[in-house]
Design brief:
Blueprint (H helix, E strand, L loop, with lengths): L3 E7 L5 H11 L4 E4 H11 L20 H26 L3 E4 L7 H9 L3 E8 L3 H11 L7 H5 L2 H17 L3 E4 L6 H9 L1
Parallel strand pairs: 1-3, 1-4, 2-3, 4-5
Length: 193
């Protein structure tokens, strides 16, 4: 028997980690994984010379434009993320996976569903730029990185944000503006049924 797969993605600073913690508890997910954790593990195996995209933030410029540079940070994590998902599927476990290193797609969810499990993809977003900036500024209290690190790259973050929303809409993922949705947990719970 295959369990449930819930994938929560969104640009930096939209509240993925906060909502993931609430959802995992409320919906009793057995396993929770973060793409940041996968990235940290891979960084110990692949040096900056071998895989430079692995050693920079998803929004830091690398010379190809915000979207292509973001996609370049996804590529080295793809096999690791797929391995985490496949392991949960084989074991019949529930899995909640969250992170910025996920491009919303049919394949990610459809493979799980084809194996007999329930799957839902969620793109968290904040349409209002000023609200997004406020959320990023407030995250410094909860994150070891300076808010300035994010705010200096807000243009790139917003381009990635818009691309994630576009891909999520195109591929049938649940889109939740965390500043407008009164009950994001309820919306996810309904979508998981």
């Amino acid at each position: 028997m295959v369990g449930r797969l819930l994938v929560i993605t969104g640009a930096s600073g939209v509240g993925k980690s906060t909502l993931t913690t609430r959802v995992a508890s409320a919906l009793e997910f057995e396993k929770v994984a973060s793409t940041d954790t996968v990235r940290e593990i891979l960084r110990t195996q692949l040096g900056i010379e071998a895989e430079p995209a692995l050693h920079r933030s998803s929004f830091q410029p690398a010379g190809s434009g915000a979207i292509e540079d973001w996609r370049a940070t996804i590529v080295p994590l793809s096999d690791g993320i797929e391995a985490v998902i496949e392991r949960a599927r084989r074991r019949g476990s529930d899995l909640l996976l969250e992170g910025v290193h996920i491009a919303p797609s049919f394949t990610l969810l459809d493979d799980w569903r084809a194996a007999g499990g329930r799957a839902c993809g969620v793109v968290l977003h904040v349409d209002d730029l000023e609200e997004h900036v406020r959320m990023i500024a407030s995250r410094q209290e909860h994150n070891d990185r300076s808010a300035r690190h994010y705010l200096d790259h807000i243009e790139q973050i917003r381009q990635i944000h818009d691309e994630m929303v576009r891909l999520g809409s195109k591929n049938g993922w649940l889109l939740i503006d965390v500043t407008l949705e009164d009950d994001p947990l309820g919306a996810i719970e309904t979508a998981m049924k």
